[in-house]
Amino acid sequence: MSRSPLAVLANAVSSENAPALPSSAADYKTEILSGLTVALALVPEAVAFAFVAGVNPLVGLYAAFLVGIITALIGGRPGMVSGATGALAVVMVSLVADHGVEYLFATVVLMGILQVLAGIFRLGKFMRLVPHPVMLGFVNGLAIVIGLSQLEQFHDPATGGFLSGFPLVLMLGLVALTMFIIWIMPRFTRAIPAPLAAIGIVAALVIGFGLPVPRVGDLAQISGGLPEFSIPLVPLNLETFGIILPYALILAAIGLIESLLTLNLVSEITGKRGGASQECVAQGIANVVTGFFGGMGGCAMIGQSMINVSSGGRTRLAAASAAIFLLCFILFAAPVIEQIPLAALVGVMFMVVIGTFAWNTFRVMRRVPRVDAIVIVLVTVITVLTDLATAVVAGVIVSALAYAWQNATRIGARTYRTEDGAKVYKVQGPLFFGSADGFSELFQVETDPDHVIVDFEHSRVADQSALAAIEGMADRYTAAGKRLVLRHLSPDCHALLRRAGQLVVESDDDPNYGVAVDYDVQPGALGGGH
């Protein structure tokens, strides 16, 4: 029995799904330090995405905190980290430019409501339709996007152009040092997450020696107060709704696709399943709250989620502590955080890129069908050039069309004669829009006897195109004065044919359906098969 929408919502926030906590003091330390590492990496990302969207940096930081803390507590996959993302920011920029930031807040609220509805009606289950090649393309595309986004940190704060000369060499050297520390440290100790240790060591070197490299404070001042509740200052009328609805639909779709794909990825890494519908509800609640507290909204972040998982974060405590640390940075520790060199954070993100990219893709592509290899490359390229939602939809469409074509070529029939002289066509393969033409070409109406049986024991009637093909075949046999019957229809096929308007004529002596019954065909129910 399916549950009511309210039951689904209640389940998402019930005590049954309460935050999973560490089981030992050592695990508590690991989770909290992992959260601190994630929080440090969140700062430049949130600030940068706020700039992309054309809003104040605090709008991005508040979104990172609010979305992060709510999804950490009630999300569908412990270990995931959510916050302000670039995939959403690139959609928001035109809305902010044309109508102002208050319309953005209203859009984020509506976006959240749509996501809650998606969770209540369990639309997240459709993510199972995403093929594995699309997942590989998504992971690789996001890894490339994360890597390319770090190039922005190589700008000179004074001139706005790219660093050059000694400052560039120094920046690259510190990035390489950060990456080396992250790589080598686990060989000696895991007491402290390697990314956190690398950030601390490189920051100490830069601050101690006064090295002239860009720091977090060069991006923006991150100090501020607590986010304040405020109803978006927009007219409550249909005109406003017409403005924000298209943006809300796009943002909700992008946010859920990225969040659910990240959920699947984290689930694969940790070996634990996640709740797709629960994640949809959590993302929606987080965005509704964020819109009322002056945040730009957000979704799951694959880069920060990978930092968390690689640092040992497995429970809700890690992601929740990351959000709390971020708020503490804003309220109390802004002067300290602003001194952290961007090179250290870039090095951490580059290591995330290396760990996220599916390097076995190059080996897999030589062994999988050519269409799957094309889908992997296609999704990767579209993710880099446009956005994640477009890439995933394109990948699913191409995969579906390829699957349809492969099945369309499998239609065939084996023929034989019965003792009473009837000719039997034993159809092989599914009958649907892709195979309808091939199905029609199987029959030899002119040379067939007066009694023809089409046996669907090894076939299925799938759609209206299949119905039209059967009716068209029936027209041809009726015009030739011959009898055509269908045999071995499965219950679902039989029901589909009956709904078409008595396309199947049942005999009076067979009131109960049986798969071995022969059915006469009534042509013309679908308009002559056209």
TrEMBL record:
Pfam families xrefs: STAS (PF01740), Sulfate_transp (PF00916)
Family annotation (CDD domains): STAS_SulP_like_sulfate_transporter
Cellular compartment(s): Membrane
InterPro entries to which the protein is assigned, alphabetical: Membrane-Transporter-like (IPR052706), SLC26A/SulP_dom (IPR011547), STAS_dom (IPR002645), STAS_dom_sf (IPR036513)
Domain STAS: 412-501
Membrane-protein topology: Multi-pass membrane protein
Keywords associated with the record: Membrane, Transmembrane, Transmembrane helix
PROSITE patterns per UniProt: STAS
Record-annotated membrane-spanning stretches: 49-73, 103-121, 133-151, 163-184, 191-211, 244-266, 317-337, 343-362, 374-405
Source species, domain of life: Bacteria
GO cellular component: membrane
Keyword Membrane: yes
UniProt cross-references to SUPFAM superfamilies, sorted A to Z: SpoIIaa-like (SSF52091)
Protein name: Sulfate permease
Native source organism of the sequence: Limimaricola cinnabarinus LL-001
Source taxonomy: Bacteria, Pseudomonadati, Pseudomonadota, Alphaproteobacteria, Rhodobacterales
